[in-house]
Structures are given as C-alpha cells and as structure tokens.
Amino acid sequence: MNTNQTNTISFQITELLIKHMRFIATMQQVFGVIFIIAGAFTCLGIITAIVGIPQIFAGAKLFKSGSAFSLVASLRKGDDIVDAIENIYGYWKYFLITFIASIVFIVLYIVIIISILVTYSNGYY
Questions:
Q1: Which of 29, 39, 15 is closest to 87 using CA atoms?
Q2: What are the pLDDT digits (tens) for 15-44?
Q3: Which residue of 38, 75, 87, 89 could cross-link 65, Cys pair, CB 3.0 to 4.6 Å?
Q4: If we measure between CA atoms, which residue out of 61, 57, 39, 58 comes closest to residue 49?
C-alpha cells in the first residue's frame, strides 16, 4: 500500500458551514486556553504534573485547531482544514493520555484511602 498516495475531497462551503466553523474555532480556542491554564495549575504538584503536562499539550493542540478552523472560514484554503484536523487529532491523543493518567491516579488514591481507613479501624496508629 502506498502511504504517500493522496486523494481529493471536495465540499461546498455555505454560509451556514462558515458560521459553524467560526463557532467551532471560537470554542476550541476558548477551551484550549482553559485547558492550558488548568494544566498549569495541575503541574503545581510534582506527581500531578504527570496529568498536567499532557493537558497543556492537549490545550495547545485544541487552540491551534481552532485557529486553523478560523482560517478555513476566512480564507477557504484546503491546507488549513488539513491543519485543523491534524491538530484536533493531536488534541485527542494528548487528551487520551491525560484521561488514562487521571484514572490511574483516582484508583491509586482510592486504594491509599482504603488502606489508611483499614489500618486505623484495626487500631494500628
């Protein structure tokens, strides 16, 4: 299979589609900034930085995707839609890493809390 092979996809850009792309762009940029800020706060702890660093990268990718969608709505260039899709792919990849790390931390936290409760309920101080 030739991985360098390219195909062409064409679609009609209507005013409604442009309106939707501008809304998507705005939301992605706003939430990208929010995720970056939340990731920075998460990085304040040494151990929690394992969750915070991928969250910062995910927020940056989401923001870049929003910028590319904004360019698509304004300039209507095909390269910008490719850039938007590549960045949204990066967002979901880093978001998955963040999600898995968060689940691991939650399970670990529950195990620690249960072990502390069991230890204190048995009278060991």
A1: 29
A2: 888 899 899 999 999 999 999 999 999 999
A3: 87
A4: 39
